[in-house]
Design brief:
8 helices; six-stranded mixed sheet; alpha/beta
């Protein structure tokens, strides 16, 4: 059997045609860090996100306004793009059926509403972007309002630079006297709306809602991008339908658990409609999925105190490093409330603040309870 060894002299018989060069694995990388400028990209507003596809409205407020479907460019695969975001698009932006545009750039955000899963979760979840109002929807009854949830939402809104508005539904079932008194000195805008579970639609409005309170709320939303936030079963989807003419699914409250069924699965931006009120361009209502927890791990203790505007002035008299707990010596908040400067609900408001700060030796609002009932 012959030897398979090849001597150096044997290579003299080879030329370049006999050499097979394997392609460089890095050969597909660009030789420059420069990227396309996409100078002809058009700007749009994200109205919802669904399974890796973004619905975007372009040419907003013009006769060419249209909605198209877009995918995220490879360069943005790690970039979070949420409802309310402004994005730049290329490709087929006609909005025709079965066409797909490409998102190549995320616009600067004016505001970001965030939450964490709970008060210990360091991961922030962006709810929506570029909103300037947060409408916190609660029911006067069925289910009962939880002030802990409302206070959490107020803190998150003010931390994001968004104005909070409290909308109380089902006021024809029960007058929210105690809830109104609780927030009387907070400076919080409050709108009342009446609705009854199971009432048939009537000439008054969608799902039996009275048009008067709906139009009153609509007046507060004109010219703004407003996020509606609330537990399942409080009538949020019913309210959205009355404001926008949409057909968002509505649900009822379980008589045993006192909780509603989730009827919205993703945040959706809608434009309101009205036969009586002129709707200016740029008015959007964003319906969010019903939630049961609203963690504030991303908000500092100082920002939480500032959100309680009727108490915040008392913190100026606190000693350096004060944790505002009931045991804290010379806590300015305790003295401020004891002097009656925070109103009749001062003590209850201070207790809620301390629960959010989690300094009372307890865990504060649990993920399921979300504050006290009134």
């Amino acid at each position: 059997m012959g030897s398979s060894r090849v001597s150096a002299y044997d290579y003299l018989d080879f030329d370049e045609s006999d050499v097979h060069v394997r392609p460089n694995k890095k050969g597909s990388r660009p030789r420059t860090k420069d990227r396309p400028a996409f100078e002809h990209a058009i700007r749009g507003r994200v109205v919802t996100v669904d399974r890796g596809r973004w619905s975007v409205v372009v040419d907003e407020g013009t006769e060419q306004e249209r909605q198209l479907i877009a995918a995220r460019a490879k360069e943005l695969r790690r970039t979070s793009i949420v409802t309310g975001d402004f994005v730049d698009l290329v490709g087929d932006t006609s909005g025709a059926k079965d066409t797909l545009a490409r998102i190549v750039r995320l616009g600067e955000r004016s505001s970001v509403l965030r939450r964490s899963a709970d008060d210990t979760d360091p991961s922030e979840r962006v709810v929506v972007a570029n909103a300037d109002q947060l409408v916190i929807v609660v029911a006067a009854a069925n289910p009962e309002p939880r002030t802990g949830f409302i206070d959490r939402a107020i803190v998150a809104a003010l931390d994001a630079g968004i104005e909070p508005i409290l909308c109380i539904t089902k006021t024809d079932v029960k007058q929210p006297t105690e809830l109104l008194e609780y927030y009387r000195t907070s400076g919080l805008k409050i709108v009342l709306s009446g609705s009854v579970d199971g009432r048939a639609p009537s000439e008054e409005g969608a799902e039996g809602l009275s048009r008067g309170p709906v139009d009153e709320l609509l007046e507060q939303l004109l010219g703004h991008v407003s996020v509606l936030l609330g537990h399942s079963g409080v009538g949020k989807s019913t309210l959205v339908n009355a404001l926008t003419g949409a057909q968002r699914a509505t649900g009822h409250v379980n008589a045993v658990t006192g909780r509603g069924r989730h009827t919205s699965s993703s945040a959706l931006a809608l434009q309101p409609v009205s036969e009586e009120i002129e709707i200016p361009a740029g008015t959007w209502i964003i319906d969010t999925p019903g939630i049961r927890s609203f963690g504030l791990a991303h908000v500092s203790a100082e920002r939480i105190v500032e959100a309680f505007v009727e108490l915040a002035a008392g913190a100026a008299d606190c000693p350096k490093g004060c944790d505002h707990s009931p045991e804290a010596e010379q806590c300015g908040l305790s003295a401020y409330v004891a002097a009656g400067r925070a109103g009749d609900s001062g003590e209850a408001r201070l207790e809620s603040l301390r629960k959010l700060l989690q300094v009372s030796g307890e865990q504060g609002d649990s993920e399921k309870e979300l504050g006290s009932l009134l």
